[in-house]
Write a structure and sequence with these properties.
Layout lengths: L3 E6 L16 H12 L4 H17 L2 E8 L13 E8 L17 E5 L7 H13 L4 E5 L3 H9 L3 H8 L14 H7 L7 E5 L5 H10 L2 E4 L1 H8 L5 H6 L5 E2 L12 H11 L5 H7 L2 H6 L17 E3 L7 H9 L7 E3 L2
Parallel strand pairs: 1-2, 2-3, 3-4, 4-5, 5-6, 6-7, 7-8
Antiparallel strand pairs: 9-10
Helix pairs in contact: 11-13
Amino acid sequence: MPATVNGHTHLDLTPLGGKMDGPQGFLPWVKEIIRLKDHLGEEDIRKGLCDGVSMAKNQGTALVGDHRSLPFSGPAQDGRPVVYEFREYLGSREDSPPWEKNENGLFSLAAHAPHTTAPWLIRSLKQAAAARGRVFSIHVAESEEEASFIRTGCGPWAALLSGRGVDFSRWALPARSPLWHLDTLGVLDPLTLAVHLVQAGPEDLDLIARRGTHVCVCPRSNHRLVGKLPDVPAMLKRSIRPALGTDSLASVDSLSIFDEMSFLWKHIPSLGPEDILAMGTINGARALGMSGHFGSLDPGKAAAVLFVPAEGSSAPGVVSAVVGGHFKTISEVSA
């Protein structure tokens, strides 16, 4: 089978793995992330990036959409997984962030989220990415705290921002929903990757489908932090083909897309295993603009091939075994 694609993760949070057992709920988790990140040094983060890449490789991933808020490069691209690096910004800065480069040329910009990033900064980041034909990424509709803040302009999230000295008085709030807020900024299009969408309702999904915006869901992280999953069946009915991401080791136990697939099927058994397999492979490659190289076994693509010892009496049975995690080991096939 093709090696998997991790559409969204944060490798710079790898050092926080195993340290986030206490907080329950989205807002306490955010506060704990802020506290722990303040104690991470440059070497901790660099080591985390290297460790995260190694974990992804050992778990069968060929391509990673990595989001990092600090300008740390590395490790060097010496094979798979290939890292598509998103430099992520938040806050209310007025100037346009610089366009950076990494060693393999796979670099773009991301806004953290509509509840953490000023509208003019979101628009500026999107325009800079679009001018270079690159994917722009943003977390959106992840938590009820975010949705409530966007709809009302007040509440617990507003209090958190105010406590950190963030002035959101010019953020054009309240708005209809986080996704409609982004649409008024002109950022929803086929070169945008919207991550999470746990709080997206039918009208939000209709909007996403009309705009052709790509979607990445992180079911294990969503289930842990907000106790809810995105409505993947409703997405598929609208011909939205979501990718899968692991978010980070601050909210999940592994960087394995196989673990995401099996978790999703266990919690939404109505999904077809073929759809879930596509979410972990070709959908992620499309979402990152890399379907010409990864996500399927076709002539001309990268030779990113896995051997998975899954058994079944038919092709659908084998796919079900893969998606359900009914195998012991995986290995990369040399080409």
